[in-house]
Amino acid sequence: MDVDVAGASTATATATADDARPAGTGRRRGRPSTPVLSQEAITRVTLRLITRRGYEAFTLAALAKELHVSVSALYNHAASKQQVLLWAQDAINATIDTGPFATLPWDEALASWARSYRDAYADVTPLIPVMAVLPVSDAPGSLAMYETVVAALVEAGWSGGEAVNAVVAVESFVFGSALDTAAPAEIFDVSEDAAPVFAAAVADRHRRYGRGAATADAAFDLGLDALLAGLRARHGSGA
Amino acid sequence: MDVDVAGASTATATATADDARPAGTGRRRGRPSTPVLSQEAITRVTLRLITRRGYEAFTLAALAKELHVSVSALYNHAASKQQVLLWAQDAINATIDTGPFATLPWDEALASWARSYRDAYADVTPLIPVMAVLPVSDAPGSLAMYETVVAALVEAGWSGGEAVNAVVAVESFVFGSALDTAAPAEIFDVSEDAAPVFAAAVADRHRRYGRGAATADAAFDLGLDALLAGLRARHGSGA
DNA sequence: TCATTATATGAATGACGTTCATTATTGTCA
DNA sequence: TGACAATAATGAACGTCATTCATATAATGA
Prior knowledge:
The structure is a homodimer of 239-residue chains.
Chain A: H1 39-53, H2 60-66, H3 81-95, H4 106-122, H5 128-131, H6 140-155, H7 160-181, H8 196-209, H9 213-235
Helix pairs in contact in A: 1-3, 3-6, 4-7, 4-9, 6-7, 7-9
The first copy, chain A, binds a DNA duplex (30 and 30 nucleotides) through loops.
């Protein structure tokens, strides 16, 4: 995925440098000439760590090591591990494409948004349960996303309340589907004796849609089409 | 929720006893006359603990205490904490009601199943990411559920492959929605300055649907109706 | 009877998140 | 210029957690 952290081109002089690494060889204590840590650096390395090595590998020790810094130094910038995850959440949400809402009818834009949303989270599924439950208030990237999406629905004639419900519903489907992409390919491998109809249906599914990621995609496509067809039926197609 | 663990009426002599508690006052070491622990007892107390005190409170220490047993004793029965959670998963899935598939048209039965599914998991949201990703093979309760649901869809004329996709899609929506029920009521509390349209929409939502759990329910209802309308449009209504 | 097996125990281990006293550098104000 | 607060790093604790291990004892069965 390789998320571009918000403000990538602002203060950070490190730019494309290999990684935060003090110029002097092995300075030890006290305030360094130029700060090693920042929300931006922490967030960038956090996303890289989770994407490459998975969530279990994401410990503050690993994060600190990657940043060439002591664990306790992290606490000068982040109040907790939870906060670091919040930053990561916001950075991910900032990458979700809301552009289509400016040009396409609401239903097509919503579909496009849902796909972008699922893609963004498929790499970081362990964050989903954390995310799905966290306040949006102090996450500017997430907030901007909701504003755009809900505004487009209201513009198209939805009431505010139903617009939020529709967004939450689509979001729920997206989160669930992103989790599904993390499931092992053999999740439904099952003996014919134990569940004959189900086993046959799973075999048929593989014949039609392939294996692994392809099956998760097929289920997502079917569900998204159905969900949007239902929403359209309720409010008339857009534009 | 109060899940009835599978096999509640089998070997366990404890029956309705307050809790596993050795008859003799404070026996200390060695094999007891009658075993305190069993998969059934561990699973029952696990579900009670998670339901009542939340997932964060579910530690092996807490589990052992509730069972009046040492932590290490648990390892004579379960290989790991993960395994204990797997048992819990299967017990929960066994409580999901698939009865309607025997009598109702597929779409109504699917809706009823989805509601039962969401209710079952709303109390144990932290299990969702564990669950959504775990193989179904050695979980007899889960397997039986899939067999019933898929068989009903195939009976109604769905191809096996699409039936599985539809089930996965509904399941994804259910998991996502169950996560949503765990969100704090103030998750969307936001200042009007930062996101005016969104803030107004959230206010409208509260006016129409109430606060807290009621809003999550409204979003779930809207999404489920839409999803099923879309699936119906694709395959004709049931019966 | 006596070895084996099942089931419990407490103590030790190592990983983790978090706190704290300490140290060194920077920027600001008299 | 010199004092001083603020900033940003450090290593050493701490408490909690899951897991392992050596040990003890009751039940089972040959």
